[in-house]
Amino acid sequence: MSVRNAAKRFTSVMTAASLSLALLMPAGPAFADAGFRQWVASFRATAVAGGVSGAVYDQAFRNIKEPDPVVLEKARTQPEFTAPAWDYFDNRVHDQSVANGQAMAKKWKPWLDKIEARFGVDRYILLAIWSMESNYGEILKRDDIMRNVIRSLATLGYGDPKRSKYARTQLVAALKILQTGDIDESHLMGSWAGAMGQTQFIPTSYQHYAVDMDGNGKRDIWNSIPDALGTAANLLKKNGWQAGKTWGYEVTLPAGKLPGGAKTLAQWETLGVVRANGKPFRNLSDKATLKVPDGRGGPAFLMIRNFSVIKAYNNADKYALAVGLLADEIAGGNGLVQDWKRPFTKLTFEERQELQKRLSQHGLYDGKFDGKIGDGSKTAIMAYQAKVGLTQDGYPSMEVLKWLRQK
Ligand SMILES: [Ca+2]
To answer: Which residue(s) pair with 275 in the sheet?
Structure first.
């Protein structure tokens, strides 16, 4: 993004955030800033009681005079709807995330060997987590996404009643990270909600799990890939990762009703549940639970223990499943046998980028050509559909791309 665009964008976000601040603080932005400084001054005692030195506190806040308007805006507009399965998985498990993962597997092989040997966690799972969390570090280069963690958490602690408790706890933890000297305050950057580094750890998780894998004396999950992947491996290991085992299997189901609950893979096999790719289960005595995230007619899975371990990272089935599926493909697997239920013909990753480029040529899209179909792309697709008289569903479909190619 050009500097001018960034400035323009920042101004429009500022305006929106000032409005929402004004709603929170009837006295207006000037008083809101005074209120924030007051909050920072009064939270000092809490931080000190939590073990943060006064000097570290003052140093961390010395250049922070105002809440971060971008953080308040993000906190206000976080979507809470549930995306359909194809929407979630297509944006995470695709040609590009697989190819990048394979390139990273080669590039970091010596360190992945060491991390696997030390923690017993599968390298492909770690690569998939890295992809899901920061697109292999790419988002850390985005000035429009990366925020000062201390300022973000103080902003949420002060201005977002829903997240205030979370933010106060995380702020004390973040200050303690500065106190250890693992990173200095100008590099303590993260997402608007305080998730940090290549593998997006919130400060309390960092405290529990961060490791200095490369041995330079600092646990640097921002700049050291070995530290970041070692830290992710440590989290999974401490939450019960079973070395040498997978997360689960895509399966095909027999007709008729199946019992619920956990059973051994041998028992599932007796019930007629077999692997979708025709291969045998690896260990028939593993206990497994059946999941059909897209309902009957979509792909089905038997999840073993490591699936729930991945959920220690992010407690959502679809997150853990995306990690598992992406890991399998980075390792050379062929992907799903039974695809997600999709009300249109799927585009490849490159075709989705082409779709974005063509929408931008029509003046309907000004985001990145990143193949990710988020709200901006969907709005642009709908605007185009309205223009040419198609049903306005916002789907990144072959039908829309074919129309775009004609004009
Ligand atoms: Ca290190």
So the answer is: 251
Note residues around ion ligand 1 (Cβ under 5 angstroms): 212, 214, 216, 218, 220, 224, 227
Q: What is the pLDDT of residues 315-328, one digit of tens each?
A: 999 999 999 999 99
Rg over alpha carbons for the chain, rounded to the nearest Å, is: 23
Q: What is the pLDDT of residues 112-149, one digit of tens each?
A: 999 999 999 999 999 999 999 999 999 999 988 999 99
Where are the domains positioned within the chain? 3-80+142-196, 84-136+217-342, 349-406
- CATH code at 84-136+217-342: 1.10.530.10
What CATH number is given for 3-80+142-196 in this structure? 1.10.8.350
Compute the distance from residue 246 Cα to the ligand 1 centre, in Å: 28
Amino acid at 237: K
Measured in Å, residue 341 CA sits from the centre of ligand 1 at 44
Ligand 1 center to 310 CA (angstroms):
24
Measured distance CA(206)–CA(214) in Å, rounded: 16
